[in-house]
From TrEMBL:
Molecular function in Gene Ontology: peptidyl-prolyl cis-trans isomerase activity
Catalytic activity from the UniProt record: [protein]-peptidylproline (omega=180) = [protein]-peptidylproline (omega=0)
Matches recorded under SUPFAM superfamilies: FKBP-like
Stated name of the protein: Peptidyl-prolyl cis-trans isomerase
Pfam families assigned: FKBP_C (PF00254)
Length: 148
């Protein structure tokens, strides 16, 4: 066991459960291997890192993360209507997650919302945008990051 506390330059191993307002589990490491990451490396949005900063091994908590500190508010401008013919041979289905390239060539995931004969409506918001989440954490290990 380490005596280190979670802060920049630390590697953290933890178990977490992420739930929606109604208690639906979105993601959890409880039934699998714990998550290991470097604090501040961008793997967790800052709103998830801020509450666990300063925790040590064996500590944890249950934190409410508002949309502004999680995946942002749902933005209606991120819903785009595309021409059906733009999909070529791909057959979009409602609820399907598809990958699209923006003007810079960056891949963006989008969820197909509606389909008609000529148009397909795709939502490019993060699936958890606009949701208040509960982040339950149990810290298993905290060690200084070692350069390989």
């Amino acid at each position: 066991m380490s005596d280190y506390l979670i802060d920049d330059g630390m590697e953290i191993t933890l178990h977490f459960t992420l739930t929606l307002e109604d208690g639906t589990v979105v993601d959890s490491t409880r039934e699998k291997a714990p998550a290991t990451f470097q604090f501040g490396d961008g793997n967790l949005p800052p709103g998830f890192e801020n509450p666990i900063k300063g925790l040590g091994v064996g500590q944890g908590g249950r934190y409410t993360i508002t949309p502004e500190h999680a995946f942002g508010q749902h933005n209606p401008q991120n819903i785009q209507t595309l021409k059906r013919e733009d999909f070529g041979d791909q057959e979009p289905e409602i609820g399907m997650v598809m990958s699209f390239a923006d003007k810079a060539g960056t891949e963006l995931p989008g969820v197909v919302k509606t389909i008609d004969d000529e148009r397909v409506e795709v939502d490019f918001n993060h699936p958890l945008a606009g949701r208040t989440l509960t982040f339950e954490v149990e810290v298993l290990n905290v060690t200084p990051v070692t350069k390989h």
